[in-house]
């Protein structure tokens, strides 16, 4: 084994921006979990997750109120992205963090740090808006999955672009979203299917299209395409 191999880190390093996203999900979950276990915060800590969901979750009722009243207070607008900080359970948080680390690393190695941030948060915002417009109800949307599906969309774009450059068929690139949606449906049938999948599909679509703009050279190609139109 070479000297270089000895010096190599045991785990492949993650992009710095990805660490910020991971911490934004992991730190609140650590507080919620420790509070539910009674390790911190006293008796009231058991309700921190629910309280955070009520404060940060997004819903059709919130969106309808803003549109009807023509008012867009910061605490409501904040919900469009902040709902991603609150997971429904510790199990969902672990699932989200694993997907974030894997997908974020693959996408983050191909795009700039700010682009990686956009590919997580903009799909999350779009997912919340689609969820709110489709469902005029008070059921709250929480969790990082819409943003994660944005990264799935980004990775799908990059993969199908690579396949096209090799002259191969592009459709295998979409197998990832098919598998995730099938898993999502299977879990939903077990624990109860909600309408959050609307936000996740929207997140995937926005992440997919946005990658064509934010990937290296993508903005130039997009401008060239607009001029041809």
Fraction of residues in β-strands = under 5%
CATH architecture: Up-down Bundle
CATH class: Mainly Alpha
> Biggest β-sheet, characterized?
none
Number of strands: 0
Describe this structure in words.
The chain has 229 residues and is mainly alpha-helical. It has a single domain, classed as Rhomboid-like fold. The protein has twelve helices and no strands. The chain is globular, with a radius of gyration of 19 Å. The relative contact order is 0.13. The mean pLDDT is 84.
Keywords:
single chain; 229 residues; mainly alpha
Could you write a compact summary of the structure shown?
This protein is mostly helical. Helices cover about 70% and strands about 0% of the residues. The protein has one domain: Rhomboid-like fold (Up-down Bundle), CATH 1.20.1540.10.
Secondary structure topology:
Elements: H1 3-7, H2 16-36, H3 48-56, H4 60-69, H5 74-77, H6 79-82, H7 90-108, H8 113-134, H9 145-165, H10 175-191, H11 196-214, H12 218-228
């Amino acid at each position: 084994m070479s000297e270089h191999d000895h010096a190599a880190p045991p785990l492949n390093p993650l992009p710095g921006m990805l660490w910020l996203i991971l911490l934004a999900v992991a730190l609140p979950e650590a507080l919620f979990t420790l509070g539910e276990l009674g390790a911190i915060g006293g008796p009231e800590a058991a309700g921190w997750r629910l309280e955070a969901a009520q404060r940060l979750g997004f819903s059709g009722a919130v969106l309808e109120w803003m549109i009807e009243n023509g008012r867009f207070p910061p605490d409501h607008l904040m919900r469009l992205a902040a709902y991603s900080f609150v997971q429904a359970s510790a199990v969902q948080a672990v699932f989200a963090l694993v997907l974030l680390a894997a997908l974020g690393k693959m996408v983050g190695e191909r795009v700039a740090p700010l682009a990686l941030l956009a590919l997580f948060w903009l799909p999350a915002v779009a997912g919340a808006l689609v969820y709110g417009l489709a469902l005029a109800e008070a059921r709250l949307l929480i969790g990082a999955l819409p943003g994660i599906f944005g990264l799935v969309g980004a990775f799908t774009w990059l993969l199908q672009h690579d396949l096209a450059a090799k002259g191969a068929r592009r459709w295998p690139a979409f197998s990832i979203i098919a598998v995730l949606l099938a898993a999502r449906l299977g879990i939903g049938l077990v624990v109860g299917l909600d309408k959050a999948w609307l936000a996740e599909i929207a997140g995937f679509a926005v992440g997919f299209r946005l990658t064509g703009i934010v990937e290296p050279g993508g903005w130039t190609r997009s401008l060239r395409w607009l001029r041809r139109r």
